[in-house]
Amino acid sequence: MLTWHILTGIHLKKCTGSYNPVIFSANSNGNGKANLAPQEKEKGKGKGKLNSITKHRHSVRASPQNGSIAVTGGFTVKMSIAKPLKKLASCVILDLDGTLINTDALLSDVLGGFLSKYGKQWDGREVHKTLGKTPLEAAAAIVEAYDLPCSTNEFISAINPLYSEKWCNIKAQPGANRLIKHFGGHGVTMALASNSPRENIEGKISFHQGWKESFSVIIGGDEVASGKPSPDIYLEAAKKLNVEPSSCLVIEDSIPGVTAGKAAGMEVVAVPSIPKQSHLYTSADEVINSLLDLKPEKWGLPPFQDWVEGTLPIESWYIGGPVIKGLGRGSKVLGIPTANLSTEGYSTVLSEHPSGVYFGWAGLSTKGVFKMVMSIGWNPYFNNPEKTIEPWLLHDFAEDFYGEDLRLVIVGYIRSEANFPSIESLIAKIHEDGRIAEKALDLPIYSTYRDDPYLKSCVKDSSHL
After folding, report:
1. Pathway it acts in (predicted)?
2. Each residue of 114-159: pLDDT tens digit?
3. 390 an active-site residue?
């Protein structure tokens, strides 16, 4: 079944006296149905009264090839296909560092140890100057920023062995394995294009099973005249894939990478790796919070089929600690009592998981196990200065439980972090998240985690289990 969603259409005055978009679907033979989408509010005659919402259904014959349709019914419909939301792509070119693998933690670890030899401390303040740059450019930025008593080449020679010996510890970004497996399973051609040297690229991906075999082309920054933001690396990838640059979809985490993709004439989805910087990616065709939020169908690629009841199953992960007082807005401002956890000691865990709304099970030492939904991030509406963890236990408690041991098993993802125009819309969305989590946690795929040993060992009184 081929389905077109909202398409430009004119429902002539004979029927409603106004215009309605046409929604239609057709099978491969061109037979199907056309639905005229309802007006949200249709102005009536007289003193500005509103008539009831109208909806009409008519048989249709459609040509998926050229978009022409023939409609039968008591009135005439003129139809033309609207411009697609996004340009169609036939292949995908992916960046590596920051996009598919999380190199931030490794970078901090290696540079922290190296700089300490010179009595300096890595604080990450120059990370934005290294993001998406060639190794030589990144090294030069660090040497200059920390006023190191060595040349750029000497720095590279000293740091590379420290870096490469820890490649085995680099974790895939959330959604990376899912994306590669999905595209590979649907026969979508993929290429890997990184500013890193080709040898380094292959060394890093060798620790991720099946990755190397999934890419038809792998290109390093040392194989082209100029690295990103020059388009060279993406143009070379398209050439080796034997495709037109305009048919390629690039997925990038850095501004230099986005610039390179656009300069090559490609469509670009940005997945910013630096928090709270999405507004800087204005040249990207789309900006998403993480790979979990990618919608391939926007680009004419096969859609993911693993969402369940508005939720995405993820590899479970665990976090816990004493309940602390939060920012004082859960119950007072939102009317939603959150059981906040301290982020102290969890900086690595937080860096591994993108901001957004998740759900799972919560264990309280004296009360039992409960369903929960939680946000991770900066809460754009309140603009938190730090990344926080704010679980909402979906249960009415008679009293506070500050200081009590709380353990969380996170099993699914609902949506990315978002800003809202009003406090009312934020509250409404939080309650919607709660309803989605409440319903989903009854599904077998999630409900089994209620008996996870991590939770059961936390609850002191077994009668609460």
Report:
1. Cofactor biosynthesis; FMN biosynthesis; FMN from riboflavin (ATP route): step 1/1
2. 888 888 887 766 676 677 778 888 888 888 888 888 899 988 888 8
3. yes
